[in-house]
Write a structure and sequence with these properties.
Elements lengths: L2 E5 L3 E3 L4 E8 L5 E9 L6 E7 L3 E4 L7 E6 L4 E6 L8 E11 L3 E6 L3 E6 L1
Parallel strand pairs: 2-11
Antiparallel strand pairs: 1-3, 3-8, 4-5, 4-9, 5-6, 7-8, 9-10, 9-11
Length: 120
């Protein structure tokens, strides 16, 4: 069984910073991608930042230049440094990992979510 444990969600002021972390545990093989999605009230879950093949990083347009993703795919860890926060960054942030499971193939795993609230 693979689980993702997130931490770092909190209440922040506009213009402030937060750092989210996620660590995977369990039996998994090669991690093809790992990153962060968020779901704001009344909106669909959207990709925020993603690391693919341990090298390629992609960001949503709304966070480019403000958020930085880093991680160690081999260990199943990923972090998200969030700067210059705005109220639009408010939402539940989910860690997502695509990894190979022996005898099964590639599966997608989600964390339970961590709340980020940005207040003025």
């Amino acid at each position: 069984q693979v689980t993702l444990m997130e931490s770092g969600g909190d209440l922040a002021q506009v213009g402030g910073s937060l750092r989210l972390s996620c660590a995977a545990s369990g039996d998994f093989a090669m991690v093809s991608s790992m990153g962060w999605y968020r779901q704001s009230s009344g909106k669909q879950r959207e990709m925020v930042a993603l690391i693919t093949s341990g090298i390629s990083k992609s960001y949503a347009d709304s966070v480019k230049g403000r958020f930085i993703i880093s991680g160690d795919s081999a260990r199943g860890t990923v972090s998200l440094e969030m700067n210059s926060l705005t109220p639009d960054d408010t939402g539940v942030y989910y860690c997502r990992m695509a990894a190979g499971i022996v005898g099964v193939g590639v599966q997608i795993f989600w964390g339970q979510g961590t709340q980020v609230t940005v207040s003025s």
